[in-house]
């Protein structure tokens, strides 16, 4: 058991990210001092939302520079911290060089942060933002898992540099984290394994989250002829922040935590939005047939390879989230609220125009 002293500062790497911004808000609201590590602390545009959150909270924020690819670049930010949240990691599906753009920053970044923690004597716990992608690649993997659902015991064995390299990067990065945890006894490690994160962004103008791109596909008309019934898990970004917070400050927290609220698919999440937004926006109302996707998918989107379509479309996704509910007491926000808050944010920011 590890009890974290709330009077000590807490480090958050990649602090201005989509998930990390909500985590920083939670920590500040609890009156905690946050050491916010970002790529460029002088880029006012990238951190202004965090400064605004801090101005309305009981906590204090201090900004530090941090680069995933530079050993010891987080050392200054980590000094004096008992708790470290390592959230910084690339999340992009449209990449040219998987090794350079995904694998290297994910694995080396994790190694750099955790190796630095071996040198900073104040550190007692590290919470790493991992992903369900470190557990599975395609929906078919959850069908093939024991009892037809993924659990914390399962590891991704189907991703590679050539197929779903993002999932491969998350698998290698998390394995590196557990390898480094075993090499020392100063601090313990907890991982948050998230499914697709949706919900409003505090940093919408600057976020590069793939989650926002999925919302754009749904509301922007790209899928108005039909959405693939692509099995996936969804969780609200505010619940993910809460899960990180509790993983850090619950003394008994240990191991991996699947952080996925609902087993659903792309068409189902669109249908949730139809009653409120269907008349004004070109939301998909029907399923796109799998055979049609097989024909046009690879032409329309290079991510939609025939293998990907075969393994995900019309395939259910199932994840067991009982551990996080039992051990961390997480109660998930209703999917309807997550989707409506996400969509309304896109409208308010002028990203969606009504038809």
Let me know the average pLDDT: 91
Under CATH, the homologous superfamily of the domain at 10-136 and 148-197 and 235-262 and 317-332 reads NAD(P)-binding Rossmann-like Domain
Unreliable runs, pLDDT <50, ≥5 residues?
A: none
Order of helices and strands: EHEHEHEHEHHEEHEHEEHHHHH
Structural class comes to: alpha/beta
The CATH architecture of the domain at 10-136 and 148-197 and 235-262 and 317-332 is: 3-Layer(aba) Sandwich
The best one-word shape is globular
Give the termini separation.
55 Å
CATH C-level category of the domain at 10-136 and 148-197 and 235-262 and 317-332: Alpha Beta
Strand content: 5-15%
**Main beta sheet, described?**
7 strands, parallel
Rg: 20 Å
Secondary structure: number of strands: 10
| CATH fold call of the domain at 10-136 and 148-197 and 235-262 and 317-332 | Rossmann fold
Strand order of the largest sheet: 3-2-1-4-5-6-9
Number of helical segments with 4 or more residues: 13
Helix content: 40-55%
Task: Give the helix/strand layout.
Blueprint (H helix, E strand, L loop, with lengths): L9 E4 L4 H12 L3 E6 L5 H12 L4 E6 L9 H4 L4 E4 L11 H22 L5 E7 L7 H6 L20 H18 L5 E7 L1 E3 L11 H10 L11 E6 H13 L5 E5 L2 E4 H12 L12 H11 L5 H7 L9 H6 L7 H14 L7
Parallel strand pairs: 1-2, 1-4, 2-3, 4-5, 5-6, 6-9, 7-8
Antiparallel strand pairs: 8-10
Keywords: Oxidoreductase
Pfam families: Epimerase (PF01370)
InterPro entries: Epimerase_deHydtase, NAD(P)-bd_dom_sf, NAD(P)_dehydrat-like
């Amino acid at each position: 058991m590890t009890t974290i002293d709330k009077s000590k500062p807490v480090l958050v790497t990649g602090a201005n990210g989509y998930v990390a911004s909500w985590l920083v808000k939670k920590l500040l609201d609890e009156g905690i001092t946050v050491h916010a590590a970002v790529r460029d602390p002088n880029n006012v545009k990238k951190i202004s939302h965090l400064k605004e959150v801090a101005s309305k909270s009981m906590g204090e924020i201090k900004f530090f520079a941090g680069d995933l690819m530079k050993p010891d670049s987080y050392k200054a930010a980590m000094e004096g911290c008992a708790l470290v949240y390592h959230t910084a990691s690339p999340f992009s599906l449209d990449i040219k060089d998987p090794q350079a753009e995904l694998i290297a920053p994910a694995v080396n970044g994790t190694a750099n942060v955790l190796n630095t923690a071996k040198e900073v004597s104040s550190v007692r716990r590290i919470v790493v933002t991992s992903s369900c992608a470190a557990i599975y690649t395609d929906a078919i993997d959850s069908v093939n898992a024991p009892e037809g659902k993924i659990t914390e015991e399962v590891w991704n064995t189907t991703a590679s540099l050539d197929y779903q390299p993002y999932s491969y990067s998350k698998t290698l990065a998390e394995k590196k984290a557990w390898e480094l945890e075993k090499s020392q006894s100063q601090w313990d490690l907890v991982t948050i394994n998230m499914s697709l994160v949706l919900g409003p962004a505090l940093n919408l103008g600057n976020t590069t989250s793939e989650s926002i791109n999925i919302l754009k596909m749904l509301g922007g008309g790209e899928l108005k002829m039909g959405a693939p019934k692509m099995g996936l898990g969804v969780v609200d970004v505010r619940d993910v922040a809460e899960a990180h917070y509790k993983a850090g400050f619950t003394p008994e927290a240990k191991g991996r935590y699947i952080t996925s609220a609902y087993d659903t698919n792309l068409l189902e999440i669109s249908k949730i939005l139809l009653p409120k937004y269907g008349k004004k926006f070109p939301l998909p109302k029907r399923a796109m047939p799998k055979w049609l996707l097989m024909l046009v998918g690879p032409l329309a989107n290079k991510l939609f390879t025939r293998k990907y379509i075969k393994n995900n479309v019309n395939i259910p996704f199932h994840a067991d989230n009982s551990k996080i509910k039992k051990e961390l007491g997480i109660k998930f926000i209703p999917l309807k609220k997550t989707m409506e808050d996400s969509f309304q944010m896109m409208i308010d920011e002028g990203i969606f125009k009504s038809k």
